[in-house]
Design brief:
Layout: H1 18-29, H2 36-43, H3 49-61, E1 65-70, E2 73-78, H4 82-100, H5 104-113, H6 117-130, H7 133-144
Antiparallel strand pairs: 1-2
Helix pairs in contact: 2-3
Length: about 150
């Protein structure tokens, strides 16, 4: 298998998220789920087993990977197709950026204002789908109720 990745630059630090991307590429190329030891072996790098294990665990917590027991370890696989994994990763970055600002309403308002009309409609549809049916029913009752005015 052996995915050849470039070693970290002198000084030992990788660019942020580089190891996660390398691990995701490794799992995307694999025919089956991989244990941390198998991921480590396929990366062809001098990395600690615990580094791989921690990164896999974090990717699982983010919803990017599935895991299943495999002996005394877990075996990991992509939770979705590569495009779906990319969508999850982008959404995570967007959420992190949103959480760094103090003015969440302002950030969201500017984001929505810059959307193309078809993306704005898609966002509205996704928000409507994600709300529980009871909340949608309440909204509909409020919009159709005409009180004295």
């Amino acid at each position: 298998m052996g995915i050849s990745t470039s070693p970290p630059p002198k000084g030992g630090r990788r660019p942020r998220g580089a190891l996660e991307r390398e691990i995701l590429a490794c799992l995307a190329e694999a025919d089956d789920s991989l244990t941390p030891a198998q991921v480590l072996a396929s990366l062809d790098q001098e990395l600690a087993y615990t580094t791989i294990m921690t990164t896999l665990s974090r990717l699982h917590e983010k919803g990017v990977l599935r895991r299943e027991p495999a002996g005394r370890a877990y075996a990991y696989s992509l939770a979705d197709d590569p495009e779906g994994v990319r969508s999850i990763a982008v959404a995570q970055r967007m959420r992190r950026l949103l959480e760094t600002g103090a003015d969440r309403a302002g950030v969201l308002a500017h984001f929505v204002a810059d959307l193309r009309p078809e993306d704005e409609q898609l966002l509205a549809d996704l928000l409507a789908e994600s709300r529980p049916a009871s909340a949608r029913d309440d909204d509909q009752r409020r919009s159709t109720h005409r009180g004295p005015g």
